[in-house]
Amino acid sequence: DADVTQTPRNRITKTGKRIMLECSQTKGHDRMYWYRQDPGLGLRLIYYSFDVKDINKGEISDGYSVSRQAQAKFSLSLESAIPNQTALYFCATSEGGRETQYFGPGTRLLVL
Amino acid sequence: GESVGLHLPTLSVQEGDNSIINCAYSNSASDYFIWYKQESGKGPQFIIDIRSNMDKRQGQRVTVLLNKTVKHLSLQIAATQPGDSAVYFCAENSGNTPLVFGKGTRLSVIA
To answer: Which contacts of A58-66 are long-range, i.e. CB under 8 A and separated by 24 or more positions?
Structure first.
């Protein structure tokens, strides 16, 4: 969905490096989410934010941090990347009070 | 713990046949359910949703059925087409909590 964009789309990094994945949305939604997807494990929630001043940990927040810079922007950081963080990362948004989530195209991350 | 899961991890159907993808959930407080389709290399896309005050909802070629008694959700795709080949996820939530996703079912359409 072009209303939710993620950058970069692909990233290769080395163990120990700090990286940031960015998400922007033009849908005007209050809520934003970061998920990771691994083969056979579906989508697992890392962090979510219900508005600019709200940050919540999800199922697998260890090793990650987030920043909600504005209503439209939500970034995910790996402070010191490790190989088992190799995965596909998705950002999603939803309107406050409704949980239909709209997903970005994903960022494929490889940590060597 | 509470979980959302799927009965079948893979499903192969003949083009033109109907497909049924099943999902079990364990949280009896869940009041909103949604199906997503994920094609290779893309993010999940919304297909159809249903609230707990309904037991059936129809869209274009798709129908979602909800059986709250046995905590079961299904997605029916009529006249399955090659373009329906994808991974399908069910998800659920209650109140103000984020969606909880199942692990997905891969649908393969045989031409």
So the answer is: A58/A33, A58/A34, A58/B98, A60/A36, A64/A34, A66/A34
Between A40, A50, A103, which is nearest B103 by CB? Answer: A40
Q: What are A60-111's pLDDT values in tens digits?
A: 999 999 999 999 999 999 999 999 999 999 999 998 766 789 999 999 999 9
* Mutate: best of B57, B99, B103, B106, partner A, most A CBs <10 A: B99
Residue B78 C-beta-side C-alpha neighbours within 13 Å: 7
Structure tokens at B67: 């059986």
Q: How far apart, in whole angstroms, are the C-alpha atoms of residue A103 and residue A90?
A: 7
Helices (H) and strands (E) in chain B, counts: 0, 11
| pLDDT digit string, tens, across residues A82-96 | 999 999 999 999 987
